[in-house]
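Query protein
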Amino acid sequence: MRKVICLAAALMMLAGCTSVGSLGMVTKSTADPSTVLKTPKPYKELGAVEGEACRFFLLAVAPWGDATFSTAVDQALGKVGGDALLNVTVSNSLYGFVPIYNFFSYTCTNVRGIAIRFEK
């Protein structure tokens, strides 16, 4: 019985949650999306890519890192030199270790999609 209580207490000290969504098309943070939509351009598919951006918190006071969506997209596109992502899946996760006291926690944004490069 004591082992069960210890295991339950250990599991309660590690908490996490994830949310998932999807998008049709996402461009680089430096691109002008209205221009892309107004003037159709041919493109080349570069393949499936994935990007991740994380932000960490120590004692809920000292944050470092960047977990923004645009950072994750730029990282994914930077791997293959793409201009945009198609059929994008976005997930955001938050993990806390000893969540009552916010000893250490982090959040990550993951982006998956098909990278494309616009042809000139």
Q: What stands out?
A: The helical segments are 2-13, 33-38, 69-80. The chain is about 25% helix and 50% strand. The chain has a mean pLDDT of 82.
